[in-house]
Amino acid sequence: MARPRIKDVARHAGVSEKTVSNVINDYIHVSERTRRTVQESIAHLGYRVNLAGRHLRKGRTGIIALVVPELDVPYFAELARHVVREAGERSLTVLIHQSGADREQELTALAGFGSDFVDGIILSPLALTPDDLRRRPGVPPTVLLGELLEEGADHVAIDNEMAAREATEHLIALGRRSVLAVGGRDAPGLGTAEARTRGFRAALSAAGVPYAPASLLPVESFRMSDGAQAVAHALNRGARPDALLCFNDQLALGALRALYEHGLRVPEDVAVIGFDDVEGGRFSVPTLSTVAPDKAAVARTAVHLLQRRIDEAMGSPTGEGAEGSGSTAVLSTQDRVVAHRLVLRESTEGRAG
Fold this sequence. Notes:
Elements: H1 6-13, H2 17-24, H3 32-45, H4 51-57, E1 63-68, H5 74-88, E2 93-98, H6 103-110, E3 120-123, H7 130-134, E4 142-145, E5 154-158, H8 160-173, E6 179-182, H9 192-206, E7 216-217, H10 224-236, E8 243-246, H11 249-261, E9 271-275, E10 289-293, H12 295-313, E11 322-323, E12 330-331, E13 335-338, E14 340-343, H13 346-349
Parallel strand pairs: 1-2, 1-3, 3-4, 4-5, 5-13, 6-7, 6-8, 8-9, 9-10
Antiparallel strand pairs: 10-14, 11-12
Helix pairs in contact: 1-2, 1-3, 5-12, 8-9, 10-11
């Protein structure tokens, strides 16, 4: 059976095709009686809006890309779920791409995958440089997550420096004085690890706790195995921490294993805090204290900013940040900070009762 079209709905409802279109697009200048009649015909015939055709008539594909370093990292998987839901509410389809934190892969994504296949990109970069964004003509509308490469790009993140400082301050308030940062990176830069390291150091300094380079445990990547290896290596060379600030929950879960294998109790001997509030940390033994970013807000804000930028690229900028009016308006770039909170569980507080 042929798929019903607008003209079939119009014939069934006894109205014009224009009226059907007005109902579909939720125009206000349609009487409630007519709207109800058209909606009943749509339901009866099983008519579905041709979103692809609608987007193409506007010069768009209706597809955006979400580019993340690794799909099997729980934080990115959970974030992707939120992005897909937010995009769906705007009739957008999400293409999810794994970059592997490889610069060439990130550049390919930044170039729109070599075609006009996507209208815009939400990108979590790890390997790009500021010049990669600054000097590339024809880059599709792009919103950055996590790593802030330069001020000239729309960007969404939590306040990583403040979050790390708050988490470290909590460990110090528990009486811990030998705190190690798993994943720490003491170097200039605007990346997430650098920002969290600054927050870690600021908390130590404010509390009068000495800092030493050995307080940072660098990792090759942010997986459980890296956390376990970094903590085991530190313990084997004589480190005696009483607290660990881990720069994501995967590192923290790996650290829990290393501490267990060395006969150390959590939190009695070593308190542990992670970042990201992924599901696995709520079921680990002990359950994991963590910095919880508002992932739903990250996704909602990123999709909103990208929609603004796509509208601007199509010559019809709308919404917050527009300067001037009409097709010549230019939207100012946005650096959005999303809320976070410290979630305290057994790995710092112990078991209740």
